Amino acid sequence: MNIPLPVALIQALSEARAVAVLTGAGVSAESGVPTFREAQTGLWAEYRPEDLATPEAFHQNPQRVWEWYQWRRDLVAKVGPNPGHDALVEMEAHITARGGAFTLLTQNVDGLHHQAGSQHIYELHGNIQRIKCAQCGIEAQGWTADESPPRCQQLGCNGLLRPDVVWFGESLPQRALQAAIEAAHACEIFFSIGTSALVQPAASLPLMALESDALLVEINPQPTPLTPRADFALQGASGEILPELVERIWG
Ligand code: OAD
After folding, report:
1. 122 within 8 A of 141, measured Cβ to Cβ
2. CB neighbour list of residue 62: distance below 8 Å, 6 or more residues apart
3. pLDDT digits (tens, 9 = 90+) for 28-67
4. Which residues of the chain have pLDDT under 70?
5. Residue 233 Cα, ligand 1 centroid: separation in angstroms?
6. In sequence order, what are the residues at sequence separation of 6 or more whose Cβ sits closer than 8 angstroms to the Cβ of residue 79?
7. Which residues' Cβ are closer than 6 Å to ligand 1?
8. Mean pLDDT of the residues in the chain
9. 162 three-state secondary structure
10. Cα of 112 to ligand 1 centre, how many Å?
């Protein structure tokens, strides 16, 4: 494969001392995980987020919400990282080996970046495999799906268990969001990869990087609201462009 890549980007990435990467559902698309907003195939084309991804939806119909996440958990458990995830692991290894900083900020809850081997990573929207109590908030260990949803085993709690993901109307994990803001302001190059760049506050991170004079690189087969602001908008699949980029610099 020979994807034309801007020489100025290759030059900048081969010298950058601080790189931040924001990923979205598109990075996992080539692993077989559906995205959210694509017209025919996205999850939000078939389901309404307000029925499945809000605290109110869980309150009204915990069984429906639990079972939808159980379906997604099973789906994610069957797939693995793709060459896009692997290329980000390599990029991190090369940048940190020369003393640079690399921060991966993901909106994905599928854990595939961890599975691929990325190290310095913040999961902004949680992780679908982690389960917590909707009442006491404590992470549930060794829970069994005997009820739908199961109950919290903490002494005296008995609350309903839920996935440890961020629903619409909920706050992002404070530490991860703070680290993301710092990385966006400190980086020399900011990548926005496989995200529609529509969901806040993650969608503001590339703009913060621009405010701090970073180069903005977008990788996406489709244009997004961010495309006109990008210094380099690489139109295509992350599983093809990222390996090519890494190969051209460090191959
Ligand atoms: P979206 O579904 O909104 O956007 C996915 C993006 O990936 C689109 O812009 C696609 O064009 C792009 N895409 C598709 N295939 C790709 C590929 N092979 N390589 C690169 N890009 C590709 O997903 P997100 O932006 O991640 O939140 O959505 C953000 C949040 O909205 C999600 O984290 C989720 C959702 O509701 C919560 O659940 C809280």
Report:
1. no
2. 134, 149, 160, 162
3. 999 999 999 988 889 998 889 999 999 999 999 999 999 9
4. 1-2
5. 16
6. 28, 31, 32, 33, 110, 112
7. 24-26, 29-30, 35-38, 42, 49, 53, 107, 125, 166, 194-196, 198-199, 219-222, 224, 237-239
8. 96
9. strand
10. 14
